[in-house]
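We modelled the chain as a single entity of 402 amino acids. Its sequence is:
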Amino acid sequence: MRGADLIRFARDAALGSPLRTSLLVLAISIGVAAVVTLTALGDGARRYILHEFSSLGTNLVIVLPGRSSTGGFNPANAITGTPRDLTIADAQALLRSTAISRVAPLAIGNTEIGIDGKLRDTVVLGTTAEYIQIRSLGIAQGRFLSTEEWTRGLPEVVIGATIRRELFGAEPALGRLVRIGGRRFRVIGVFAPSGQSLGTNTDEVVMIPVALAQSMLNSNTLFRIFIEAKSRETIEASKTQALDIIKQRHEGEADVTVITQDAVLHTFDRLLTALTLGVAGISAISLAVSGILVMNVMLVSVVQRTSEIGLLKALGATHRNIELAFLTEAAILSVAGACVGYLLGLVGAAVIRHFYPSFPAYPPDWAVLAGLGTALASGILFGVAPARSAASLDPVTALAKH
């Protein structure tokens, strides 16, 4: 039998039992769709987290109050109890490092902002002029905070896009006086819309000088110190020097945690890649189950088509021809199921992106190839036994059962 004859024989056999064929294709497609959709979800989570951390800025090092109890970065224990406050003076001292180009202290709290009887809760961030450069934030109107002494500051505020819209509407915001935490501040700038970043919506925050924020919140403790290394090559040096400087200031006690952006990215990348591989492996089990189903249905098909097989052998079909005919049928069913499953998986990923536009739920190429390859391989592998069973039939016995 020629190749075209094998394909035509397998096609006619598949179309001759539409219900059986549809169920087989559906079983295989569910497995492939699960691989595509779940890996899109896992890899999308990985890319989303990496993008969120990358948006923090470049050459970034972060100092957190409290000592991590492990050797690496762990989000669950990054902040622990600290015997000493992380202060503005600590942040200023970091500028002595030869590997550090910029430092920005950060204090954070919740308060109210209001004007002309309009009030709303907001997150207030206290920082310095360097913060916008370290974080690479954009200003839509006006300017950022003035370069003043860190221990004092002018009563000026930069507000998020949502705050500006809700309090001022179509009216200009620049130059207006607002009341924050019982104090008056002049609006000098409005952030460009940027949305969520690591759980903080920058459109809904206000930023004031760090000294005024600490006074308003009645706290001398900083929430973070953001550091920008001079280059990627000096990131590790800036981390080491920052830890040494804080240790000297805290009487030899290393009671802070210093993390680098690269370390955080590497940790999350490794964890989420393992997660993606795990869900791909779990969903691939359904492909093995589909392969077993293909084998069972094909074995039943051999019994039902015994006389047809006997006739083919009587007409000169060889043992090899019969094997290839049934293997071709299994391959066609597997390819059809894989293609349908791939399309269903793409639809599933598109649905995720529709409901969560910021989530890049795209299946990785390796997952698509692995899913399609596994579906085809399992179909052919589990089709071997039925094919050999059909090829081993005696033509005289098979025709006698007609």
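As a brief sanity check on the tokenised model: The first strand starts at residue 60 and ends at 65. The two ends are 23 Å apart (CA to CA).
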